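Entry 14. Structure prediction run on the chain below.
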Amino acid sequence: MRIDKKSVGILLMATVLFSASCGSGAAENMTSDDQKTSEQSAETTAGRDSVSDGLPEKNYDGTDFVILTRTLFDYEFNSEADGDVLNDAVYKRGEIVSDRFGVNITTVKRDCDWPSTEFNSTLKSSVMAGDGAYDLVAGYAATIPNLIGDNIFLDWNKMKYNDFTKPWWCEQAVEEFTINGKCFMVTGDISLTLWERMRCMMYNKRLAAEYGVPDLYDVVAEGNWTLDELGSVTKNVWTDLDGDGKKSKDDRFGFMINYSNAADNLKEAFEIYVTKKGDDGLPKLTFMNERTQRALEKLNTYFATNDVLFSADIDEYDTLSKKAFREGRAMIVALNLGSANEMRSMDDDFGIIPYPKLDSEQKEYHSTAQDNFSFFVAPIDVEDAEMTSIITEALASESYKNVIPV
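Output returned:
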């Protein structure tokens, strides 16, 4: 099976995290030809190298820079050079920053699955005790915000050397997270999980060709990838493969999506937001409006067709959809970008595209990252806030230059 590498470029160009401008999303126009892709990657990396982070010369004489990470995602900062292109890039990033500033970057791992409270409890207890144990925290995006009200984080807007207008940060996301002039969480290219958990759709090229579907890359590029178009290209794909006379998980479907993480992204994809900032800078509820109602009606009609498998079980969907896609029983599935690596065993070629727009009136495509990516916070008891600011900026910058392009 061949992954069309152009698809990743199309997705990243077309989607915007939190409707924000994330630097990595706007540059790559990769082709399916490996040689051309390598050449373009080299050119892109060279161009990125020219973007200065503006950091001062500092030597911290081997001081430990300790990052609290989630056990499952410690690889974001703690990877060995083992021949894997991504692991090697992460390792190289650490070496570059360590050599440049004379720091020893280390990680402390704590469990942080959905039901676990160990990570947040460990962090809060440490800060309340004034241990100064962690210089940076890569927290669970779904739960780390729960600690903001405890006043244990530094305000990133006051950190001297962090420039959130740089392409390695999600600038508009930072703007959205800023309330009353304060921002306690940031993310961007420093977070590998941000891109791995980016919501997208994958489509089976063989099935698409068999059902007369036009090149979806062209449809996306021309701005015509809408909810109606999704319904059109997946119409009449359902096939009763198990012969039970009804829609069931072992059949062939035009589209598969779950009711939770995958469906959540439909709001942002359709430019429907639960809140928006008012003139006073505070969030206001904006969800209940005509656009929301129209989207719900269109989705209800589409999801009721046999061509869609709409799963109510998150874990079941993850297994079911990936299995169906690998076996050629789903034309289009809603997954995250990191799932592409799990599809290498399938026989059919597949492409990656953004979620559709609500209608042709909408100008842009949008996406979000599933909530288990990393948000970065700085504890108020860090021993050297300037060092935290500098090393965090350097790690983000080097991610932009040497990790994300691979």
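The two ends are 20 Å apart (CA to CA).
Filed with the rest of this week's runs.
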